[in-house]
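Kindly draft a sequence, keeping tokens residue-aligned:
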Amino acid sequence: MTNKIQAHIVGHIISTNDSLAYQLHDKSRFGERVRDKIQYSLVETLFLVNQNKLEVLQQNKQLSEQELQKKLQKIDKRFNLKYEVFEDLREKGHIVKTALKFGADFRVYGKGKKPGQSHAKWIVFVDSETGKLTWHEFTAKNRVAHSTKKKLLIAIVDHEGKVSYYEVDWIKT
């Protein structure tokens, strides 16, 4: 008997109906309730594996951390960049969720705030220090944040995996 959550990966979906997953979701908001299961984002999955809270099985064979990471990188070419930001924000006490429907990487809740009980404070776009952001792209990201009533947070990951954040907010003059 293991006290780790057992999740299964099928295609790009990582999910479980393990009772421990529901407990962790209620406490720390890891995963999303989808029908009768808890479904994890790619970054949540690796984070929970690294925290020794989750093991991932594919066709009933447990994947090693390296096998899992390789698989996740194939699914999302920007996985490593996003993971650095996710891990940093979670370790700082924030709840981090995907923001695909906003065209962003993440939505982030202030400390002590939970999805379903409050709105996200930031919408996050992740890039590397060598990435190039045009004014047009910057303006589009700013408009997305403004239209969703969130602050824009640009997360830049350097070559050592350190993350710098730039918060953009609108002011009225």
In short: The mean pLDDT is 92. The CA atoms of residues 45 and 157 lie 20 Å apart. The longest strand covers residues 122-128.
